[in-house]
Amino acid sequence: MTVLAFGVQTDEQPLLEAAFGPDRIRCLDVFLNEDTFPIAAGHEIITSSVNDQLDATVLRGLAAGGTRMVAQRATGFNNIDLDTARELGLTIARVSSYSPYSVAEFAWTLAMAANRRIVRAARRTREFDFRLDGLMGRDMHGATVGVVGTGKIGEAFTRIAHGFGMRLLGWDIRENPACTDLGMEYAGLDELLASADLISLHVPLLDATHHLLGPRELGIMKDNALLVNSSRGGLIDTEALVVELRKGRSAGVGLDVYELEAGLFFTDRSLEPVADDTLARLMTFGNVIVTSHQAYFTREAVGQIIETTRRNVEDYRAHRTGENTLTAPAPAP
């Protein structure tokens, strides 16, 4: 039985083929959406990426073509219509966890690159311009970091912040004892936003967290605060962020995710006109760094994601469910 994999990156394909066997998986670089789901016809099992679109139309099309199982190669699943999947009797599984260090370290990479103006400096020196004008950053030691979401990734991010000697503020629905042991104080979101010199987002995208940082919340932040998002693009109201940036109200922003990234990130659009006006405006700010959802993309993390995906497929074949199973048909009476 061949597994069909959508949205496979070049560096990811050999790892998938090694895990499943080259004759047991077919890798495609196209993304799953309303135009491409017919490719899956005849494949009982497919595996999807975080930017594939599995809405009701796509799921119904997959089911009609014989697909019974979707193994998402990601932790988030906001791109999947789970209600429709249950209605169709589809098994949906995800990767509930992988290396938290990959994302936490990358979030800090964005934070420090924005703070110390690394991209601007590198561009200048390539042109043999060695001036320091406009490159002044600030010490992280002694500054206040606001960690929004203190699960495994937020905890790893906090440990790095503790190493810098920062004051630690956290916000979550429950406290993480590992973070409080490091000296983290938990606060309301408004208090955190108003106090933090650096804010980093590490919460999932749910109905309750969509546009968690909207016009009001962004307005509460310090004028010289740094903002990093390596979680999900929909946590930030991007148009509201552009408004704040136009006011000069941020020391720097590092974004590895964007709320309209599906169908855009992981593709080459360099020869096409820019159709997304909001993203285009975002790119014009010299203190903004945008990367294409690569925080998770280390050999260790991708290896863990693929191995978990393989196990999820094996569980399905063995009629087992586990912590990674999001939906599954009810057992026969």
From TrEMBL:
GO terms for molecular function: D-lactate dehydrogenase (NAD+) activity; NAD binding. SUPFAM superfamilies: Formate/glycerate dehydrogenase catalytic domain-like, NAD(P)-binding Rossmann-fold domains. Pfam families: 2-Hacid_dh, 2-Hacid_dh_C. Residues 109-295 form the D-isomer specific 2-hydroxyacid dehydrogenase NAD-binding domain. Keywords: NAD, Oxidoreductase. Residues 8-323 form the D-isomer specific 2-hydroxyacid dehydrogenase catalytic domain. Belongs to the D-isomer specific 2-hydroxyacid dehydrogenase family. This is D-lactate dehydrogenase. It comes from Streptomyces aidingensis. The lineage of its organism: Bacteria, Bacillati, Actinomycetota, Actinomycetes, Kitasatosporales.
